[in-house]
Specification:
Length: 981
Amino acid sequence: MLGKQAKHMSKHLRILLWLAGAWLFSGWSLSAAQQPNFIVILADDLGYQDLGCFGSPLIKTPALDRMAQEGMKFTSFYAQAVCGPSRAAFLSGSYPIRVGEPSNRKLQHTVLHPKETTIAEVLKTAGYATACIGKWHQGEKKSGTATGWDPATMPNAQGFDYFYGTPLYNGFTVEVGDTPFRSQLLRNETVVQDKVESWDNITQDYTREAVQFIREHKGNPFFLYLAHNMPHIPLGASERFKGKSKGGPFGDAVEEMDWSTGEILKTLKQLGLDENTLVVFTSDNGPWVETTRGMDPKGKAFIPRNHSGHADPLRGYKMLTWDGGLRVPCVMRWPGKIPAGKVTKEIASTMDLLPTFAALSGAKLPEVTLDGRDIRALISDDAEAKSPHEAIYYYSYTHLQAVRSGPWKLVRPRPEFPKWTGFSGRFHGDGVKETELYQIEEDPGESHNVASAHPEIVARLQKLVEQGRRELGDYDVIGAGARFFETAPKRPEVKEFTKPVVVKQAVNESDIYKPQEPLGGLRFDFESGDLQGWRVVEGKFTALINSREQFHHQLNKAAYNKQGKWFLTTLEPEKGDRGDDAQTGVVESPVFTVEGNKASFLVGGGKHLETYVALVDAQSGGVLKRASGNNAEVMQRVNWDLTGLKGKKVFLRVVDAHKGSWGHVTLDDFSVAGSIDTAATQKRWALLAAAPKEATAPAWVPPKSDITHSFIAFGAETYIMSAEGKVVWTYPANTRDGWVLPNGNVLMAVSKGKEYPGGAVVEVKRDGTKVFEFKGSQAEVNTVEQLDNGNLLLTEAGPKPRLLEVNRQGEIKVEFPIQCQLTNFHMQSRMSRKLPNGNYLVPQLLDKVVREYDKTGKIVWEVKTPNWPFTAIRLANGNTVINCTYGNMSIEVDPQGKTVWQLTNDDLPAPLIKDACGGQRLPNGNTVITSYGSRGKGVKLTEVTPGKKIVWTYEDEKNHGIHHFQILDTNGTPLAGKPMK
C-alpha cells in the first residue's frame, strides 16, 4: 500500500514540477530558445473516424498514426458544429456567441470584431512570428477594397504577419462547375487567383507555403495556423493521390493532408525543431454528410457518400449538435514533453489552445473572459489528470441545444426545422420532442435516452443549461457575459432558412428519371410484381423484384428513383433492412426482336466490370451494348442507339458477379419498339437448362492476344515495361509527358516538386545521368517534345501560360502566350505538339478546345471538344485524334472539325476507358488509350482497331495510373517513324 502511495505521489510530483517549470515560462524573461513553437493543423469537415488512428477502415494516414504513437490522442475533443463559428472559437478561446462581432450582432456565421483578441495577437505579445495559411472564413465583405473584404477583419489585421489562403470555403456543391460561386486565393491583401476552378493542388500549395514559413523562422519562436480547405466539397487531390485511396475522392483528399502533415514533421526534424514544437492536428467540425438536400427522404441526390466522411461510432454530422457534429479527432505531439502513446477521454476543445499556448510561451492573456482552459495537465504524463471543464455547450449557430458534463449529455427539446437555426435548420429528422439524457461514454451513438432513470442528473444539467443561457446567450437571449465593442443595439441574428439553394445536382438532370412514354410496345417495368418472364440463369437472389421506397443507407433515406412501384434489384436480402451485396448471379430476359432504333431504361448500383446490364445477340451470344450504375443507389436513365440492329433477336442480361461494396444492379422501365419471340425464348431456356454454366459469361476478361508491346509509362511512377511484363527501367520522379529518344535517352516533363518548384524538362541516360535540364519558371511544365532540329518544345502553365522552343543550351528560340483561362493553372494545357507545317497543336482542357497556333502565337484553327481535351494527334490525312479525359472518350475530327470516328465505353464490352489522358495512333491505324483513372488492379492501356475491336490490353496492380505513355515496339519490332502520341 505504501509502495502504491509513493508511486502515486511520485507521479504527481513529476507533473507538479513540470507545471511549475511551465509556469516559470509565463514571465517576460523567457528567452526565445525556451519558448516552444506552435503549429495547429485544422482540417475542414473531417469526421471523427476519418483517420487510421481513429479507426478508419478505408483511409490510410501513416503520418498522423505515427504522430499519435509519438504523442497523444484526445477522444473527447470538441470544436463547433460549423465552419465559421468553429474558427472563431479557436481564434478567440471563447464560444462564438460570446465573442464580439461587427455591428454588435450575434451572427449565425461568426465574424470576429477587429477589437477581438486572437490567439495570434496573444502570441505576438511574446515575440512570436505568426502565419495563417489556408481557409480564413472570418472576414466581412466590403466593396471598394483591393480584395473585396474589410481589411480590419482579415488575418493581417488579426495578428498574423503572413496570410496565404482563401477568405471563404471551397463551395457548396460537389463539383466546382455546378454553381457560379468561386473562391478567391489571396496572399496577404493581394489577390493571387480571383476564381479558383480546381482544388486539386491546394494541399500541395499550402504545404509548400507552410514549410517555407517554418524554414524562414527557424531561429525564433513561431506560430503556424495551417487551415486546410480539404476535405470540404468540392474535393481535390493532386495526381499523386487522386484515385489512390479506398475511401474515394474524400479519402484521396485526407491521405494528401496526411502526407502534408508528414512533410511538416519531417521539416521540423531536419531543422532541429522537433523537440521544441507542439503540433496539434484536428478538425473544425464533423463530416458534411448530406446525400440529399437537408437529408430530405424525397430529395434528389446531392453529395455522393464517398465525397464525405464518417463520424462513427458517433451520431450525427456537421451542422447538427449530436456528437458527430462537434466531437472531432485530435492528435498532439511534442517529443520529450507529451508522453508517447497517451490517450485521454477527458474533455478538451479548440478553445483551450489559446490559454494553453499562452501559459507555455509566457504570452499575455487578454483581459476578457475566456471559455478555453489551460490543459497542460492533460498533455503531461499524469494519467489521472482531469478535464478543467465543468460543462461543454453545444450550439447550432446561436441556438443552445445541449450540454455535456463529464460522461453525461443533456439534449434540449427542439422543433423540426427551427427557423432560428438558419441554414442548419433544414435537416429532416432532427427534431427532439422531449428532454433526452445520454451516458455519452457508454453510448457514443446517443441511442439510449436514460432521462427517466436519472432525474437528478437531468436537473443538474438543466441548471448548467440555464447558466449557459444567462452567461453566453441563446437565439432569444443576450448573454450577460457576451462581448460588444460598439454603441449600436445588441441583437441576435435570427435568420430563417425558407427555401433550398438551387444548384445543379450531382447526377445530371438528364439522367434522372422523368415520366416518359414507352419507346415501343415492349416494356419491362415489373409493375406486375413478378419477373415478367425473366429467369435467374446463374446464382441465387432472394428478393429480385422489390418495391422498396427508400435507399438502404442509414444516412440517406431518399426515395428510389424508380418508375412505378416495382423494380428489379440484386441487392435485396430475404430478411432485414440492409442490402446484401454478397449475392451474385445472372438474370436474363426473354428473347425479343428489335423493331426500332432506340431503347431506354433506368439502371443503378455498382460501376464495376462485374456489375452491368447488357444487350446480347441471341444467336452469337456477343454483347452488343453495356451499361452500369454509378456506385449510387439512384438509378440513371440510359438511352441506347440501336441503329443497325432492326430485326435482330436479342435479350437483356443483368450480371452481378461482385461481392464487395456496390456489388449490385438495379433495373427498371426498359422500353423498346420490339416483340417477344416465344419460340426463341423457349429454345434458349432449354439450352441453358442443358448447359447453364457455359451459356453465360458473367464477367468481362481481357481477350487473349498474340500482340505484345513494350512501352514507357509517365505519371506518379515512371518506368519502362518490357513485352514480358517486367519493369526494366525506372525514374524516381513524377512525370507528365515524355519520350524515349532515338539515342535511347529518356526525355521527360517532370512535375513540380522540391527539386523543381516550377516543374522542368529533363533528359537522362538509362544509367540516370542527367544530360539536359530546363527549369520551369511558373506553376508547371506540362509538355515536352524533341523537334527535328534538336530543339525542345515545352509549355508552361501558370499566370502567364506560354509555349516555348528552347535549344540544347537552354536559349529560348520561340515564345508566345497560350490564350487560355487563368483561374486553374493545372487545367490549362497538355501534350502540345509541333506540326509539319511549323504550327503548334495545343489541347486546352478547361476551355474545351484544341487550338492550332502559328509561330507568332496567332490562332489559325480550333475545334471545340465534348469535354476536357488532353491529347491531340495530327494525322497525315489532316484529321486530328483527341482524347477527352473527363469525357472518357477518344474522337477523330476532320479539318472542318466534324467527328468522323468516336470511341466511348458504350462501344466496348466493359467500361475500360477511365480518364482518357494519353493516346497514341499506331502505324497500323489502331489507337492505344491510357486510363489514368484506373488504379490498383485494372486495365491501364487499351488498343482498339478502327472498327472498335479490342486487340490488346495491359493491366497491373500498381496504385498509380498512367498519365501518358509511348509504345516502343510491337512483337519485338520497334515502331517505324516518329510516334504519333
